Amino acid sequence: MSISNEALQKLVREIESQAIAAQQQIGLVRTQLASRQREMRLAHLTRSEISTLPPDTPVYEGVGKMFVCLPVPELQTKLGGQMKDMEAEVESLGKRLHYLETTAKNSQEHIERMLKGQQ
C-alpha cells in the first residue's frame, strides 16, 4: 500500500511539528530542572549551616522586603519540607524530560522511515 505524495508530505509536516514542539519543551524542562536542583542545593546548604547553630540562636527568614525571626528548629523543619517538595518536582520533571526526549526521538525515526520508504 502506497501513500500519495501529498498525504506523505502532510504527515511529515505534522510529525515534524510535533518534534519541534517536543524540542522546545525539552529546553524548557531542562531549564526548570536545573533551577529546582539549584534551589534544592541552596536549601540543603542552608539547612546544614543552621544545624550547627545552637537552638536559641536568632535566625531570620526573608519575607518580601522584610525579615522575620524564626526559631532554628522551625526553620529546619520548613527547609526540610521545601526540600521534599523540590525533590518531588525534580522527579516529576525528570519523568517529563524522559517522555519528551522519547517523543522527539520517535518523531525523527518516523520521519526517516517514511522518507526511506518512499525512495
UniProtKB/TrEMBL annotation:
UniProt KW Chaperone keyword: yes
Superkingdom of the organism of origin: Eukaryota
Pfam family, one: Prefoldin_2
Molecular function per GO: protein folding chaperone; unfolded protein binding
Alphabetized InterPro entries for the sequence: PFD_beta-like, Prefoldin
Key words of the record: Chaperone
Cellular component annotations (GO), alphabetically ordered: cytoplasm; prefoldin complex
TM stretches of this protein: none
Family named by the database record: Belongs to the prefoldin subunit beta family.
Protein name as it appears in the record: Prefoldin
Lineage: Eukaryota, Fungi, Dikarya, Ascomycota, Pezizomycotina
